Protein 1
Amino acid sequence: MPTAILDIQDLSFIFDDGYIGLNRISLSIRQGEFIILAGKNGSGKTTFLRHLNGLLRPTSGRVRVNGKEISTHLIETRKTVGMVFQDPDTQMVGDTVFDEVAFGPENLKQPRALINEKVSRVLKALNLFHLKDRHPSTLSGGEKRKTAIAGILVMDPKVIVFDEPFSNLDYPGILQVLSTLMDLHRAGQTLIIATHDIEPIVFEAGRMIIMENGSVMEDGAPLDLVPCLESYGVREPCFSKFGLQPRPWQK
Ligand SMILES: Nc1ncnc2c1ncn2[C@@H]1O[C@H](COP(=O)(O)OP(=O)(O)OP(=O)(O)O)[C@@H](O)[C@H]1O
Ligand SMILES: [Mg+2]
């Protein structure tokens, strides 16, 4: 039985204006799990994810990474849990796509040759290598998103949290990100993916958590929960809705 890499106990979060963002969430996430986090706009997905690497602190309850309280082990937590934000612009700091992706490893003072090798490998996997000398501000929305993903992948965190990784991506872009996600999953990485687009990953993921009003409403096998998605304001995948034979997007 794999050990819990994230342990969330009775987590609640109240915004400054009194709005209850998260309401008593308890979850245990084991190493190597591939989890879909679903729920309509405003259900609390981003608020929840921002607690997993200490960007937000619980109003009550606790979040532990590898058994250690996040608030007292922030640096260690951020090395373990990488986060690709919903809005990629908030993450861009480099003058070129290459520098942007190299930023994290450079901060860790890794050897130049190793950085160059890792950055090139990740850029090629996401079909971004031809853009390596471009300024990030000149990229399209989808290219920015993939660059932000590359910047996290290059750090090789044990847990990768993706907030809407498919938004703004065209079909080939979705397939590139999907194939990267599947490689990561097969390599044993823990993946938590908040998305409104369930269909591309419903076969690969082993668990789906559905949120509403800051609470966890469902937690189970994705294919079992697919029929109830629309009652939580999330689009049900076509194969399920129309009674078709399910087919994975990728082999
Ligand atoms: N700073 C804030 N102050 C008060 N309420 C906030 C604040 N930030 C977010 N909220 C509210 O918290 C709720 C949860 O927001 P959150 O961004 O976590 O939702 P989400 O599930 O990620 O939605 P989406 O699918 O649109 O990304 C929303 O109703 C939002 O308006
Ligand atoms: Mg969100």
Protein 2
Amino acid sequence: MNVADAVLKRRSIRSYQDKPVTDADLEAIISAGRWAPNAGEYKMSVIRNKDLIARINERTLDAMRNSGNEFLMGRAALPGYLPLYGAPVIILLSGPKEMAITQLNCGVSVQNMLLQATELGLGSVFLRSPSYALNAPANAALSAEAGIPEGYQMECGIAIGYTDDETKFARMEREPRGVVAYID
Ligand SMILES: Cc1cc2nc3c(=O)[nH]c(=O)nc-3n(C[C@H](O)[C@H](O)[C@H](O)COP(=O)(O)O)c2cc1C
């Protein structure tokens, strides 16, 4: 698969099979993330522990329900909604709190991983929602358990696994986003 194919084929997957991702595939995805453009330190927490994933899922759902944000509360209220979608692997990216550029370092790394997962035939989705739970002072212990260092904040992440139902919680029509202006 070439890059253009992966860009078009990638879509957000929100339902996963209970089937592990191979170590070789996971290593390839992590490596793709680490080869992304970068302008500062960040950390990847690669989480496969089912119990920890379940607890992050639960706290994220709780944070979404209590966010006061109409979109997040609406998603959390959908029957059967799991913010981590039952994925067998999640990778959470974090970086220094005081560095505004942390968001970009983490975001570009996740995008590389999404494309690599697509090439490998795996489903994936960009995750911001766990940050609502893990960056809250009340969840400091859980955040530490998830490998997020003191002074860091979780910016974004990726859920990875074999696709179960690509229509679940999905927008089926994909379209190019953003506005383009050619200034010649
Ligand atoms: C900054 C950012 C944050 C996102 N956070 C989430 C998230 O927490 N949960 C989720 O299911 N999707 C999340 N997404 C995925 C978008 O909802 C998705 O990319 C968008 O709806 C377009 O659909 P597509 O990825 O299938 O093309 C996020 C995407 C971006 C760029």
